[in-house]
Write a structure and sequence with these properties.
alpha/beta; Lyase, Ornithine Decarboxylase, Chain A, domain 1; 2 domains; nine-stranded mixed beta sheet; eight-stranded parallel beta barrel; 14 helices; 32% helix
Length: 441
């Protein structure tokens, strides 16, 4: 399963963006996150274009920064003309330091502190996506205190089970995110937003879940959301100008995964939205979408070096453990979500995958990265290339066991640029302080 600019070169090595992955591992070390810049740019353009071509009104595509956020990625998003979602003060700070225009930022999160709310208002973010009535009141007070009026969307829960992993389902009634439509609380909160000082209510937002491999739940959500827009108009006379249906489109982690293409996804979503708008005789609002994983996941590859290989003789078979120089700290998703990946031996990328092994990390945990993996011939010193790691791997990386977080390189036309330096051992101690009494003999 070769993705983006990946290919097998004349030496039989996996190549990405014109760069030999064995050469990348030798130059930058492992573990190493490799991002296919050309594929990210192509995805940004295609996703925007397919919706712009199909929807009669205005379209705004925002990159969901939580999937992968560095200053280089922020600049890429800006160059490609997308808006940007942030979900914390740190993500907002990163975007602003990279020079991203604040008016094209959407600020998410179910608990934004007063400091974060005030920071966003002062920066002039384009939209706050308000999650709850408490936040709405605090934002009103803080915006008014700065003498500003803040545009918002209200996040609502359409009450849909997206049938994905429980830990990435967010649109059902018992989600921690958003305000229930069916209970009537969402409408009451809209009415409050329309009356509060410092608040400019623009419309509604939902996000139903992640890694969705069909578009059916997005179609259902679109109908419910447009129905709620109609209910708002009936109850208040206000017509929403913004309708945000979030993200969630899945990607190919395994060859068996078959998510809709961008074109198929746009056909389904736009058809559902337009049909519902016409049913309720509503004007076309700005249609907003928030892809994250769908833009960057398949553009990312993680390189590991193979260390010890251990064979355990069991009664019925031999089990082979292949240890690599990373694990839980650079990819927690197998532990968190039972995530599965496609893996290649980078130096023999076309070899038959006729041997089953279990790839384990080097942490003091049972961090089985890839159990029962059909990998083929593998030796100590080989480089493993794990595909579709461009979303959430870097963002969720940690210093568990005092591991140093890996470097990130963007590859493009045979050039590799470090956009996130590998942490040093000194970096691990940078925040440490020893009280004076610990220094006394």
């Amino acid at each position: 399963m070769l993705l983006g600019t990946q290919k097998i070169n004349a030496q039989g090595h996996l190549e990405i963006g014109g760069c030999d992955t064995l050469a990348l591992a030798a130059e930058f070390g492992t573990p190493l996150y490799v991002m296919d810049e050309a594929l990210v740019r192509e995805n940004c353009r295609r996703f925007t274009q397919v919706f712009t071509d199909r929807y009669p009104g205005e379209v705004e595509v925002s990159f969901a920064g939580k999937a992968f956020l560095t200053m280089a990625m922020v600049r890429l998003v800006q160059q490609e003309g997308l808006a940007l979602d942030v979900a914390s003060g740190g993500e907002l700070y990163t975007a602003l330091k990279a020079g991203f225009p604040a008016e094209k930022i959407l600020y998410h999160g179910n608990f934004k502190s007063d400091e974060e709310l005030a920071m966003g208002v002062a920066a002039g973010v384009g939209r706050f996506v308000v999650d709850n009535p408490y936040e709405l009141k605090r934002l009103s007070e803080l915006a008014a205190a700065q003498g500003k009026t803040q545009a918002i969307l209200l996040r609502v829960t359409p009450g849909i089970d997206p049938h994905t992993h429980a830990k990435i389902s967010t649109g059902q009634e018992d989600s921690k995110f958003g305000i229930s439509v069916s209970s009537g609380l969402a409408l009451a909160t809209v009415q409050e937003a329309l009356s509060l000082p410092g608040i400019d209510f623009k419309g509604i937002h939902c996000h139903i879940g992640s890694q969705l491999l069909d578009s059916h739940t997005h179609e259902d959500a679109a109908e419910i959301m447009v129905g709620f827009v109609a209910a708002i108009r009936e109850a208040t006379g206000f017509v929403c100008t913004d309708l945000d249906i979030g993200g969630g489109l899945g990607v190919r982690y395994l060859p068996s995964h078959n998510p809709p293409s961008y074109e198929e996804f746009a056909d389904s979503v736009v058809s559902a939205v337009v049909g519902a708008l016409e049913k309720h005789a509503l004007p076309f609002p700005r249609l907003m979408l928030e892809p994250g994983r769908a833009l960057v996941a398949e553009a990312g590859t993680t390189l590991y070096t193979v260390g010890p290989i251990k064979k355990i003789e069991l009664a019925e078979r031999t089990k082979t453990f292949v240890s690599v120089d990373g694990g839980l700290s650079d990819n927690p998703r197998p532990v968190m979500y039972d995530a599965r990946y496609s893996v290649l031996v980078a130096g023999r990328a076309a070899q038959a995958t006729d041997t089953t092994v279990t790839v384990s990390g080097k942490h003091c945990e049972t961090d089985l990265l890839f159990p029962e993996l059909a990998l083929g011939e593998v030796h100590s010193g080989d480089i493993l290339a794990v595909q579709t790691t461009g979303a959430y791997n870097h963002g969720m990386a940690s210093n568990y066991n005092r591991f140093r977080r890996p470097a990130v390189v963007f590859v493009h036309d045979g050039q590799a640029d470090v956009v996130w330096e590998r942490e040093s051992y000194d970096d691990l101690l940078r925040q440490e302080r020893l009280p004076q009494r610990f220094l006394e003999e």
